[in-house]
Design the sequence.
RNA sequence: GGGCCGUUAGCUCAGUCGGGAGAGCAGGGGACUUUUAAUCCCAAGGUCAUAGGUUCGAUCCCUAUACGGCCCA
């Protein structure tokens, strides 16, 4: 019976075990040591040293070198790899037969003594090995591993098994988020959860996903931002709240965009934009300290220094500098349109001066801001939820934090005047009516909340995926998302 | 949405100026009691992404499609 298809061979082993009354899918293994514990406790052993200590460990077989009466099996657990030095005289014939039948990919439990081989490899010499779970599919080749991007994203589980750097990136991601939570807690913020199904899309300008609630027989939108719910909590008297939220935007997929993404939004009563700058610097520093151990890093070959305080520059200043001429509300809309065409910025007839300036800024400046920079004084036209700048009603008290040419954070001194907010919603509705499918909805309940009185407050949003990209030197957002969205397989 | 590139064995890749395909690893058989990309011997493994077209003949040339990557909008 020449069964040579790897899947079939493994399947036959599984079936044979079941036939013999032994399950290839155990339900428990009590280990005493993770691989890293073995390394920490027995790292001092010299080549050829033999400890009498018995340890029990579990993991996945990632390599096997069979030499007849001795075999080397490399086992990987969540912490490290460790070698099993399997000998027939220690395991006995039956025990060694278990080793022989192992395939790369199998989960096993091993009990044995710790030693360091003559060649210097710290190893466990098992007296017993049990198969915990049979793997039916062969893992990728041991030397090159899995490199095909498509397969890596589609079968992230294999990517994680095979690629240490990938495990490290996600480990860093989890630590970053954990450090941010600790920092927020230390600053007195409450972590809250607000709805993901919104009857009215708001809190950002973006195309939403639409879904249907059967019982209520109505449309809901997957949130594009949690902002309006978090600010309702300010009205309710929670003075410092934040949510690490998944939000959804029905837009393109690119190296920087995924349809669902993770954001931190925080609101703090009785402070303003300056408070949000401090908070932002604190959060980024906490995250960087956690995974970099400092504030300097290198992103795609470019050195980045995250040491604060970061420079604060107005959008108009920066844009005028880059354009070599005044780019401000002092210019006519026609002049600004002319500038757009000079710099190859496509324009839309419905855009006012604010939008035109923002577009020129994005074209000429944003991508060139490598070191952390707070860009301030965004136009009112593109900031429907931010407080107006006193004396300059066409500008708002808003900043975006740009690092390596990308928006990492966005913050306002919040608009708390319900009458002003009502007017701005009306403008959004006009924009929607004239075809802007990213415009916000008119949220009457949010206005009602504001009319009860919202305390002065600063609000902040940080793109967690982009922050993780920066701190892990990842070129694509897909490299920091466990399961990035893709079209169904061909 | 546009442009360029890719898709060959489970994995990593060659290759065919158009005559119908190869390696390494993995897998199978054998040898080996200190290997670590173990080594050695033997045998096996493919709808060359999919669908059309050109041709005596297409995995290779052409067109379209699918999926992916990069760049641009």
Sequence:
């Amino acid at each position: 019976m020449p069964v040579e298809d790897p899947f079939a061979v493994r399947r036959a082993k599984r079936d044979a075990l079941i036939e013999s009354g032994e399950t290839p899918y155990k339900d428990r293994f009590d280990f005493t040591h993770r691989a890293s514990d073995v390394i920490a406790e027995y790292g001092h052993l010299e080549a050829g040293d033999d400890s009498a200590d018995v340890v029990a460990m579990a993991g996945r077989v990632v390599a096997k070198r069979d030499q007849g009466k001795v075999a080397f099996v490399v086992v990987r657990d969540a912490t490290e790899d460790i070698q099993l030095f399997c000998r027939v005289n220690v395991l006995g014939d039956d025990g060694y037969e278990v080793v022989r039948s192992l395939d790369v990919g199998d989960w096993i439990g091993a009990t044995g003594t710790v030693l360091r081989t003559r060649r210097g490899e710290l190893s466990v010499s098992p007296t017993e090995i049990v198969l915990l779970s049979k793997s039916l599919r062969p893992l990728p080749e041991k030397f090159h591993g899995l490199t095909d991007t498509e397969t890596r994203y589609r079968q992230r589980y294999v990517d994680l098994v095979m690629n240490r750097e990938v495990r490290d990136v996600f480990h860093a991601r989890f630590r970053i988020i954990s450090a941010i939570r600790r920092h927020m807690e230390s600053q007195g913020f409450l972590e809250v959860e607000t709805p993901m199904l919104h009857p009215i899309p708001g809190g950002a300008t973006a195309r939403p996903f639409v879904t249907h609630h059967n019982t209520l027989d109505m449309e809901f939108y997957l949130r594009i931002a949690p902002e309006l719910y978090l600010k309702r909590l300010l009205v309710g008297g929670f003075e410092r709240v934040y949510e690490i939220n998944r939000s959804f935007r029905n837009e393109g997929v690119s190296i920087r965009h995924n349809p669902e993404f993770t954001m931190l939004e925080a609101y703090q009563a009785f402070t303003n934009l300056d408070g949000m700058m401090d908070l932002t610097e604190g959060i980024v520093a906490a995250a960087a300290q956690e995974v970099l151990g400092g504030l300097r890093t290198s992103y795609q070959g470019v050195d980045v220094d995250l040491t604060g305080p970061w420079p604060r520059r107005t959008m108009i200043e920066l844009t005028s500098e880059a354009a070599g001429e005044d780019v401000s509300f002092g210019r006519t809309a026609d002049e600004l349109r002319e500038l757009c065409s000079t710099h190859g910025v496509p324009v839309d007839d419905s855009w006012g001066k604010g939008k035109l300036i923002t577009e020129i800024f994005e074209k000429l400046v944003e991508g060139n801001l490598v070191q952390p920079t707070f860009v301030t004084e965004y136009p009112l036209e593109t900031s429907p939820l931010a407080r107006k700048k006193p004396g300059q009603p066409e500008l708002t008290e808003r900043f975006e934090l740009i690092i390596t040419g990308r928006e990492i954070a966005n913050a306002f001194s919040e608009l708390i005047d319900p009458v002003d907010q009502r007017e701005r919603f009306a403008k959004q509705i006009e924009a929607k009516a004239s075809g802007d499918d990213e415009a916000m909805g008119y949220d009457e309940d949010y206005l009602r909340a504001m009319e009860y009185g919202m305390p002065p407050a600063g609000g902040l949003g940080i793109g967690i995926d982009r922050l993780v990209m920066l701190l892990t030197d990842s070129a694509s957002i897909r490299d920091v998302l466990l399961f990035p969205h893709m079209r169904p397989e061909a």
In short: The mean pLDDT of chain A is 94.
